[in-house]
Write a structure and sequence with these properties.
There is one protein chain. It contains three helices and no strands. The protein is mainly alpha-helical. The chain has a single domain, classed as Chorismate mutase (Chorismate Mutase Domain, subunit A, Up-down Bundle). Helix content is 73%, strand content 0%.
Length: 103
């Protein structure tokens, strides 16, 4: 782990836990920034607006996240809910970008 925060197993105080959570949140936002960059690329590449929503791909992405969560012994129902919202939010964002670049 980073020198800026301790691993969860090494935390001895709530202050250390909070520093780790805050650092992790910043890392998650960096990853979301990259993921939404891919949504902008998809909006640019997809030839039709109808191509933006792909239910088969949505199901594949959520299923993969749930499977990975289960392997990590994370609460799969929580991960499924987060990924449902993430994918739906990504689709909405992609529609917004698709429309914007074609006006």
């Amino acid at each position: 782990m980073s020198a800026d925060f301790k691993s969860p197993e090494d935390c001895q105080s709530m202050s250390e836990v909070r520093v780790g959570v805050d650092a992790t949140d910043r890392e998650l936002l960096e990853l979301l920034d990259r993921r939404f960059g891919y949504m902008r690329a998809a909006a640019r590449i997809k030839p039709t607006r109808d191509a933006v929503r792909d239910e088969a791909r949505k199901a594949e992405v959520i299923s993969a996240a749930v499977k990975d969560a289960e392997a990590r012994r994370l609460p799969a129902d929580v991960v499924a809910s987060i990924w449902e919202r993430l994918v739906e939010g990504s689709i909405a964002y992609e529609f917004e970008i698709w429309d914007r670049i074609r006006k």
